[in-house]
Amino acid sequence: MLETLITSALLAVVGIYCVVVKKNLIKKVIGLAIFTNSIHLLLISIGFREGGIAPIITQANLVGFAARAVDPLPQALVLTSIVIQLSVTALALSIAILAFRHLNTLNTDKMNKLSG
Amino acid sequence: MDVIIRTIAKGIFPFIILLGFFIIFHGHLTPGGSFPGGAIVASGFALIAVAFGIKRAEMLVREKTLRIMEGIVAMIIVILLLYESFIREYIVSEGEMFGFWSAPEILSLNVVGGIMVMCALTLIVFLMIKE
Amino acid sequence: MILRSVVLYLCIIILFISIVSVLISPVFNNWESRDVARYYIEEGAKETGSANLVSSIVWDFRGFDTLGEETVLFTAAVGVFTIIVFGLKLTRKMG
Q1: Closest chain B residue to A90 measured between Cα atoms?
Q2: Which of A16, A71, A80 is closest, CB to CB, to C11?
Q3: Which DSSP letter does residue A71 get?
Q4: Most buried of A83, B85, C15, C88, CB within 10 angstroms?
Q5: What is the pLDDT of residues A11-23, one digit of tens each?
Q6: Total number of domains constituting chain B
Q7: pLDDT for position B95
Q8: Is A116 exposed, middle or buried (0-12, 13-18, 19+ CB in 10 A)?
């Protein structure tokens, strides 16, 4: 429980550091993905339950299912969030491709042309 | 790529597609659903595109076909979701609990959503490889 | 670099604040106060007929969320196509 929390906070720190400090655009996109994954880990760990099982009914765990299953709502919301993260990553990568074709560099310190 | 990657990709490609469609079609009984299944099928196409080049992958499924199919499938998904939200309560269908036809609405939505995810991811991968 | 160390200290402060704030929140690890989860677990399979409760929530109880998600996916595909095919022309024209 606590270790999941600490892992997600550490991943969030790594992601923020990577987005703010790194100069390469691709590395910034990777940092954004790490930060989003840390938030997914935190949301999944909200549905924690002691000795829980997956929220899928089968013939084997039909008896006493409601007393043991974990919360299925954060999992569904994280499934939505993963798709949105994928869309954001794809758009950011295509914008990085466009910046490289337009300016011939990926370094954000060298992107200092004002026009033309 | 070299001959080892090409041989393994050729051998493993039908099984990746089969696994993806199994996960899509059993989304209401087993773990998985529309998004993981569609991502697995798209990863199969991406494997072919990486191993054999974009020309051979376009012989399998063309980019224009993917664009048209994604538009049509997006329209179908809107109609199905509106149908399920507003009209379904009056024509509820009954099925046994663990059978394949236990939830026909969720099955149809899973199939349509999986095809849409497959088209979108394959289109994105093909466009990025072409650059 | 001064920026690098400032950002690092700021990130460590954010780490401690986030851990403490989640640990003292009333939602965390408190199963008795969750009526929505209990309703989904007990009645979800009966109402929708699906054995996979996550799938029933995604496509049935919260169907409009999923409609928005598919819209985002469609928009991302169209946006990537537009940027890659027509992007350079537009940026050259704008200067």
Answers
A1: B124
A2: A16
A3: P
A4: A83
A5: 888 898 888 888 8
A6: 1
A7: 64
A8: exposed
Nearest CB among B31, B121, B131 relative to A54 is that of B31
C84·B110 Cβ contact <8 A: no
- CATH code of residue A32: 1.10.287
Distance CA C71, CA C67 (A): 6
Complex-level ipTM = 0.85
Q: What is the SS3 assignment for A87?
A: helix
Among residues C82, C76, A91, the alpha carbon closest in space to that of B119 is found at C76
With an 8 Å Cβ cutoff, are A21 and C57 in contact?
Answer: no
Tell whether B127 is within 8 A of chain C (Cβ).
Answer: yes
Instruction: Say yes or no to pLDDT of B80 above 90.
Output: no
* Cβ of residue A111 closer than 8 Å to a chain C Cβ: no
Whether the CB-CB separation of C56 and C48 falls below 8 Å is answered with: yes
A33's CB contacts (< 8 A; 6+ apart) are A15, A85, A89
